[in-house]
Design brief:
The protein is α/β, with parallel strands linked by helices and 504 residues long. It is 44% helix and 13% strand. It binds iron/sulfur cluster. Iron/sulfur cluster binds next to α7.
């Protein structure tokens, strides 16, 4: 049996970092962790190949080679996924589809032959059994949640690691919180399920033995969902492993802001090699936090929490949302102040959307306010419902937030605010790598000479030289900033079009 696994193309988005990856000669940010795990769940006797369309071209000969094409996608990949499914049909090769796009919106790509939905650890074995008995059904789904202990080490042999900016690893699924716009809990549940500590150290060992060195992203939606296990078992084991291997990795992950209340947790995370965490802050407006049930953020001094995490040695990247029913026109300036004061260098600000399956989706449906499918892109200026704030006011305010926080002036100022507060602790980051030096020279050319606003770049570089430990991060952020400004150039005209359309 020959299986071709296909990861469809991700368009250029905030998180694709496509314009930044060129500085370090990488083609994509992350390999397709889900597909690599699916590959590991397939029988050893099956021949497997993987085409990640973000790093290489999918050709007819790849499809013709296969008995089945396995495709997994997120909503953002829907156009490319559709194209792959159509191509397979033309070439008469059966498609087996799974992942969040096909689980939440199967009607968006209706022509896949077999849907293997929800978590593959449960549904794939049933599919494989039916495959061997020649009695396949069109849909395999379940309401049960997988035991993470049955999740295998991803089949890293199928990708060329050199093409990627970082590697991925998953420790847990599920989140104890209940934010009303979030579909993580409808897909993966509230009960946090984890892999064993041995599974994780085996996965680290596997990445290491495949010669990966550098950034590793724990893709968990809320890494700190099971704190006691983290503090008592996993983090001490990672600390040991990293010491023995001489700190080959720098970790980043996603967590809720209440991690700032737990100093022991932050200390252990930093010691283990975590130096960056993405936090959903969402809004500076208390009423909006109450509206979306972001309980862990309510009544909290958000800037103080961000600064505390930074002082423990972790950069805080954060997500923000505008378009809540309770947002007032002053929300935009409050948001800019929060981002600037907190030194949140990488701030993703999006318009609120209601994914299917969420509490928000059900509320908006009952209020007859849903308008279209969400696109899965947090920053493409689309909303899938009618907001309460006047749409022109909302789009103007949103545009102003983006143009301000990603202007060279505000962005470089924010980098300084962050670096002044940050405690450097990651031993991995001390090892200057060749690609970092290459990226520095490229940034001098592209941002320091060609791009407008170069004075801010040079000001930042000179300032960083006073404490050379700051320089690698200042360069990295400058390159990210270049990507974000390029993104803005595509977002601004989109917003003008939307505003004009809404006026007609
Ligand atoms: S904390 Fe994050 S993952 Fe958990 S429900 Fe809220 S948005 Fe979703």
């Amino acid at each position: 049996m020959k299986i071709l696994l296909v990861n469809p193309e991700v368009p250029s988005t905030f998180w694709s970092l496509k314009n930044a990856l060129k500085f370090v000669s990488k083609k994509a940010l992350l390999p397709p962790l889900g597909l690599l795990t699916v590959a590991a769940l397939l029988p050893e006797s099956f021949e497997k190949k993987l085409i990640d369309m973000n790093t290489s071209k999918l050709r007819d000969r790849h499809i013709k080679w296969a008995d089945y094409v396995f495709i997994s996608a997120m909503v953002i990949q829907k156009n490319s996924a559709k194209m792959v499914v159509e191509k397979c049909r033309t070439l008469n090769v059966k498609v087996v589809a799974g992942g969040p796009l096909f689980t939440s919106f199967p009607e968006l790509v209706p022509d896949a032959d077999y849907l293997v939905l929800n978590e593959a650890e449960i549904t794939l074995p049933t599919f494989l059994k039916d495959l061997s008995n020649d009695c396949l059904k069109p849909v395999y789904k379940t309401t049960f949640k997988a035991d993470m202990h049955s999740s295998p080490i991803p089949l890293w042999d199928l990708v060329d690691m050199k093409q990627y900016g970082l590697m991925g690893l998953q420790y847990s699924r599920g989140c104890p919180f209940n934010c009303d716009f979030c579909d993580i809990t409808s897909l993966l549940g509230h009960k946090v399920r984890t892999k064993t500590t041995t599974q994780i150290t085996d996965e680290l060992e596997s990445l290491y033995s495949h010669n990966w060195r550098g950034d590793v992203f724990f893709v968990d939606d809320n890494f700190i969902g099971k704190r006691q296990r983290l503090k008592n078992e996993l983090l001490p084991a990672i600390i040991d492993w990293m010491d023995k291997k001489n700190h080959p990795f720098a970790f980043n992950t996603q967590a809720s802001i209440d991690m700032a209340d737990d100093e022991e947790l932050m200390m252990l995370m930093t010691k283990a090699g975590f130096d960056c965490v993405f936090v959903g802050i969402e809004s500076p407006n208390e009423e909006s936090l109450v509206e979306c049930n972001k309980t862990q953020n309510i009544g909290r001094d958000i800037v103080a929490a961000i600064k505390k995490i930074q002082q423990f040695g972790m950069q805080v990247q954060a997500g923000f949302i505008v378009g809540f029913d309770n947002d007032k026109p002053n929300v935009f300036n409050k948001l800019i102040s929060l981002i600037q004061d907190g030194g949140v260098v990488t701030a993703m600000v999006g318009l609120l959307n209601a994914p299917r399956g969420t509490k928000l989706y059900r509320r908006l449906m009952s209020e007859n306010r849903l308008s279209q499918f969400p696109t899965g892109d947090n920053m493409d200026c689309t909303m899938n419902f009618i907001p309460k704030m006047d749409i022109n006011e909302l789009l103007d305010g949103y545009q102003n937030v983006l143009n301000t926080i990603y202007s060279q002036k505000h962005y470089c100022k924010r980098i300084k605010t962050f670096l002044e507060n940050y405690t450097f602790s990651n031993k991995t980051r001390l090892k200057i790598r060749y690609c970092g030096i290459k990226a520095f020279f490229r940034s001098m050319w592209q941002i320091g000479l060609i791009e407008k606003g170069k004075i801010h770049y040079w000001g930042l570089m000179l300032w960083s030289l006073k404490n050379p430990r700051r320089l690698p991060l200042a360069v990295r952020f400058s390159i990210y900033g270049f990507h974000f400004r390029k993104m803005l150039k595509t977002i601004n005209p989109q917003m003008k079009e939307l505003a004009a359309a809404s006026n007609e």
